[in-house]
Known about the structure:
With 155 residues, this protein is of the alpha/beta class. Helix content is 22%, strand content 28%. A 7-stranded mixed beta sheet has the order 1-7-6-2-5-4-3, covered by helices on one side.
Amino acid sequence: MGASDPVRGAAGRRELPEVADTEALGAGLARILRAGDLVILDGPLGAGKTALTRGLAAGLGVRGRVSSPTFIIARQHAPGEGGGPGLIHVDAYRLGGLDDLDALDLDTDLTDSVVVVEWGEGVAERLVDEYLTVRLRRADDSDVRTAEWEWVSHE
């Protein structure tokens, strides 16, 4: 791991000039995640939330193609051959609030999976005591994205 690789509990920032850089950041973040972790992705349309999730999935070694769960709300990816955690990928954009989130029963999935929630800020935080927030931004005049991440604790 390099000096700019994510560290559990630490905040970070990285420029992401290419989609492959976004996926690589996801794979790096996956190395510090474990079953029971919640990752909340924030950013406008086209910021790279699903690309980051593809990287997370690759880093975790889960099965199945990762695509946006916009129309089905949540996709479950089983653990891979290595025996690591599974991945639950949620798009909270169309959820009406906490009741809709509760209906997905994500707190049960958190026992053996990493749960990634796109558009989850302000909705999903109450599922756990500590979670990782990743904010993705893209400047209006550039395709370069910026990711900032931090661990947030309710304590």
